[in-house]
Protein 1
Amino acid sequence: MKNALIVTIIILFSSFGCRETTGSNSNRCGKSCKLKYHQISSGAYHTCALSNDGSAYCWGAGNNGRLGTGDVHNQSFPVQVKIKNAKFKQLSAGYPFTCAIEAKGTVWCWGYNKEGQLGNDSDVESKIPVLVKGSKPSYKSICTGANHSCALKNDGSVWCWGRNDFMQTGLGSDVPFSKVPQKVENLNAEKIACGANHTCIVNRDGEVKCFGKNDYGQVGVSPSERPKNITMVQGINENVKQVSAGENHTCALTVAGSVFCWGKLGKKGNGSKDVVKILESVEAISSGYNHNCALRKSGKVACWGLNNYGQIGNGTKVYADVPVELDLDNAVKISAGKIHTCALKKDGSAYCWGHNNDGNLGIGNFDMEVLRPTPIKQPVL
């Protein structure tokens, strides 16, 4: 009888070691398991990621409700976003808000909303996800900037909302902001990317078009110009498969694996519309506000640019004029935020580095900065 009781206790204990359920208590992990992620997005001072079952987790600065956890507290480890009966396929962490595409193709956003950043025809912030106005199961990807969002539909059309003071939503100079998604005319896109205050797309011919703020040539025309129309970027003589936009610059990745960038690319100067080839043998790119990271085809990560908080990840805070390879292997995803960076490895684990004063690295503390890739903590309920 005593032995049978012991066996029963062991079975019950082991059954609670790692659970993969739904709702606010899902994916509770103890020492016996690790949550695996398939997508990660670094924002300004927060980070969000999707687990393999489509659950969303966020951490870092919680003001304005940007974590989607129902409160405004900063979190130094992943906390599950509060939404019932929804699984996501892609998300994007902006400056003070976050948006995501639900598995069926609808769009949800949460956080700051003064100028319609949530797209729900309101200016009231939300601490939990809200459905974007008119959202139907037709969207496949989304990007977020400092205060605007753009989403790509399956038919190639691009819809944007939020602040438009630099025409970053493509709606014209007479529209200061939009609280609901509006279609950007004459675009047939395959990929989209939101910078701080500009937006770029890759069309179905492998060309890059941009619109929005251009004080450093980041949309592909002279910095002295403020274009009123969508601009075709010149000088990339290869088909492009991905574009990534920072604060004052933009980078594109070609089908051949080459990285080209334009805008403000160094510490000094006024920027330029001229395209510069940076790197080869690259699988994916991500532009932070003033730094960039590239995922090499070998699974290594190389970063360059501003490094005042260690966002390059090479153990220093020295500006990197050229790409520096990090001590990180088997990477499959990369995301550069404002002043921090995160990556996913092949085994589904997440690593972050750079600024951490708000807990945006998810490593369980609020240390000012971390100079090398560091594994994030598991969610704690």
Note: The radius of gyration is 21 Å.
Protein 2
Amino acid sequence: MAARTSQRGDYITLALVAWTLAGALSDIWAHGQGLPETFFNPYHAVFYSGYLVTAAWLLWPALATGRGGRDPLGTGRPGYGPAQVGVGIFAVGGLGDAIWHSAFGIERGIDIFTSPPHILLFAGLALMASGPLYAAWIAPGPQRPALRALLPALLSAAMVLLVVHLATLHMWGPTSSRFMSALAIERITREFVATERAAVLVREIATQRAVANLLLTTLTLLAPTLLLIHRWRLPAGSLTVVVGLVTWLMDGVTGMFFPWIALAGLLGAAAGDGLVRALAPAPTRPKAFRTFAVVFPMTYWGLYLLAVHLHWGVAWTPALWAGVVLWTGAVGFGASLLVLPPTGAALVEPAR
């Protein structure tokens, strides 16, 4: 009964964090649409009301058990400490955001993601979303859990990953199509440059940003995936839940939810599940672990580039797009070394 009640508490936590995230997503969307902006708007109302209810839910067990009360749903069990810390960080960020807006006005453009109060809000929200994941991480249990048993942790991981990518939305890899398609390059050249030399410079800058976005997103998507594989033998569908869900939501909020792009994201995540099943990567199987870390991002981004080509047409040369795919594999290999360092001979203290 204890496992069931704690999982029920996890789902309530996830639902409340999703409420807060809905406010964040709608607020970011409003910023992107150029709607009239004030601190007191309906998007902030959803965002902060979700936070208040989530905060009450997360802090109630600590207050209740501290006074000798009961915690029937188990949200006060080990693993929810970081989520409760996140409540405080978010509160500081929210108060700071109101003061910041009064002093400096509403942020626009990239300032939205570099504003110190916003960074605190994102950090606090990520910690709040991490409760079910960290609770499952430290709890004793089977190394090969069923999808139903692991689902709260997977959804929690997806929400944490979504917050990370919302905080770095201007560097989300799939938006690179705005700088790599033939139509985008033609529009940029026509609208922003007057000479051929300037056109070459603008195309070079656009290409550099697209490549950087793809490589950074490779790291931010793959590192948590490798950590999950390091902790559990993931059941079928796990990466479709984590990577697929985040990809679809991020494509939606960035305006990139086009049929081919959406399909590529789903197929890329499903391919990751297929690789997990075929390779069985695990800490005890380092070759399989590193092979997965290389092949998964190459497959994911290969499908994405194919989708961009089918939808708009890729203006990149074969050397560029093929090289970028290989570089994502190199990033994956590097990430695997960090998550699973190579074993070596034990260090021996020199004789004195």
Note: The chain has a mean pLDDT of 86.
